[in-house]
Amino acid sequence: MSMHDDIERVLITQEEITAKVKELCATLDKDYDGKFPLVLCILKGSIPFFADLIKNMTIPLEIETIAVSSYRNGTVSGEIKLKKDIDKSVEGRHILIIEDIIDSGNTLYYLKKMLLARKPASVKICTLLDKIERREADISVDYKAFDIPDYFVVGYGLDYAEKYRNLPYVGTLSPKVYLK
Ligand code: IMP
Ligand code: MG
């Protein structure tokens, strides 16, 4: 059985993602030239986007990972739980956060606040997808690949119950999947 059968509609193709990643990397190479940025992968959803970005950047950089959960299905809103922290000091460093999708923006709002308390030189956000209609938190998105409407999407890192992260494109799920 193929995962592709569960997809109702492809919203962003693999080719569109590849082209956009190259465009973003040209900008990032320019903006971070000489800054030896610390490029931060938010596990797990950002893995494919993060991997493509760092492979297409040509300037020297360092990578780190962090894992947070956003309580988005719970009652406490606006709180994040740090499941895995960065292993080293970020003081004086230029941090570039790589995110899969910004929905309410709460996760990134709290993550950015937490990182800023550690006195980095800068903290910027680069996201694959932005569901701008859903925004609650006051955050600025510095780099973005695509805006999307308020649909639940999977693929290229994004999951539904931990599945579909390895699809090479972004799409919507067929309703039969939710009914299972
Ligand atoms: P925020 O704190 O509301 O911005 O939540 C962002 C997180 O919610 C993302 O990192 C995803 O894990 C998850 N999320 C939001 N929308 C979607 C979606 O359409 N598909 C899969 N995960 C999503
Ligand atoms: Mg998720």
How is this structure best described in words?
By secondary structure, this protein is an alpha/beta fold. The chain has a single domain, classed as 3-Layer(aba) Sandwich (Rossmann fold). The chain is built from four helices and nine strands; from the N terminus they run βαβαβββαββββα. It has helices at 14-31, 47-56, 106-116, 175-179, and strands at residues 7-12, 38-43, 62-69, 81-84, 94-102, 122-130, 143-147, 153-154, 170-173. It has a six-stranded mixed β-sheet, with helices on both faces. Helix 2 links the parallel strand 2 (38-43) and strand 3. Helix 1 crosses helix 2. It binds inosinic acid and magnesium ion (MG). Inosinic acid (IMP) binds at residues 45, 70, 72, 100-107, 152-154, 158-159.
Number of helices: 4
Specify the CATH class: Alpha Beta
From the N-terminal CA to the C-terminal CA, the straight-line distance is 15 Å
Mean residue pLDDT: 94
- Which fold name is given in CATH as the topology? Rossmann fold
Residue stretches low in confidence (pLDDT < 50, at least 5 long) are none
Fraction of residues in helices?
10-25%
* Sequence of strands across the biggest β-sheet: 4-3-2-5-6-7
The total strand number stands at: 9
What labels describe this entry?
single chain; 180 residues; alpha/beta; Rossmann fold; three-stranded antiparallel β-sheet; 29% strand; globular; binds inosinic acid; binds magnesium ion
